[in-house]
Design goal:
The chain is about 25% helix and about 30% strand. It has about 190 residues and is an alpha+beta fold.
Length: about 190
Amino acid sequence: MVNVLYDERYEIIEGEKIMSPAAKLSHNKIIMRLAMSIGGYCEANNDCAEVFTDSVDVHLPDGNVFSPDFTVVLRENESILDWDGNINGVPDMVVEVLSKSTRKRDLTIKKDIYERNGVKIYWIIDPLTKSVTVYLLHDGKYFLDDEYIYFSDKEFSMLNEREKSEVKYEVPVHLFEGLTVKLAYIFKWCL
């Protein structure tokens, strides 16, 4: 939530107002790449969903208010979009990019709150490890789909043959059949 009068960025987590500092450039670059790839897909496919970056507040049914780094709302759920305000309801997909100040919350309480409210897909992107951890909601609980890790050529060459065979180069966007995002594209800023 942004308080325009004082230019404060904060979220409301379990009734507590938590300040949110501005994101770093690397953080912003990751979000822009997701917006271009997933947003571009949605636009090319009859606007099948709306995508939003971290300047949009999500008011969840349980009273928590978050400003996720990236949010997807499918066309069939667009009734939760208030075009003059916020997202009032449960998005279909949420992405958080870890930073020093948000890491613990994104990995614990926010994950639990997204799960409790029924967010179908939760991605956690870690710029330090160049990884994307994907959780999928099934029967009201998150299960780990996979952790997708980007390896530089040098890092890849240090893996054994079994490890090399298990490396994944793309992250599937489970909301859309066949859509993937290349890890090299997400982390291109740090290559």
